[in-house]
Amino acid sequence: xxxxxxxxxxxxxxxxxxxxxxxxxxxxxxxxxxxxxxxxxxxxxxxxxxxxxxxxxxxxxxxxxxxxxxxxxxxxxxxxxxxxxxxxxxxxxxxxxxxxxxxxxxxxxxxxxxxxxxxxxxxxxxxxxxxxxxxxxxxxxxxxxxxxxxxxxxxxxxxxxxxxxxxxxxxxxxxxxxxxxxxxxxxxxxxxxxxxxxxxxxxxxxxxxxxxxxxxxxxxxxxxxxxxxxxxxxxxxxxxxxxxxxxxxxxxxxxxxxxxxxxxx
Length: 265
Known about the structure:
Helices cover about 45% and strands about 15% of the residues. By secondary structure, the chain is an alpha/beta fold. Helix 1 runs parallel beside helix 2 (about 40-50) and helix 1 (about 15-25) packs across helix 8.
């Protein structure tokens, strides 16, 4: 098992990516602590993990609330002695689709401020404990919007660029303490859409193009990626488990390209 006896905190653990990562981490031997705003979603993931014989606990919290996040991290360490892995996989509903002329300042700035705030809060909360133990892995999530250009995703594109920059610099901040930081960069994951805020986000873009979310993603995957498809949830989760394990121990400060070739480094 890649993560035998590791303790992992998954912020946004009830979401599509967070849930897939949590299930994978548990299969690989980790004890997982799911945190998120919606207990029903957390319960659904936790039930799957327990049914498969995994170890899981859940906590309702807002990853934008620094006091609550710190209290939760402290409680995990008080119970288990350490936090080995943390991933911020939260989803925040925001606007995509409108061009600059139609985009309000509030809609532009919302994802930037919310996602960067949450990543800062959660990373700082777990790094306090990881630094004391001299080891740990912090995972973040981005998209190819960080490097691509186009119309309709100005706010979220800037957000992803900020998350990637934050991850690289954070790796420099924490490397001397034995903490690794890796940003995972998948592209759109079609199977995640029914269970994710991303469907509502993509809806605006699809409507402007006169198509459906499903048709839009199918076409983009076919002609816009080298592998002629988008990544699967299982592929993202499996890579997260590998890079968080001791087998990935030489990697930090990296942006992991999991786009199936919609972006080429």
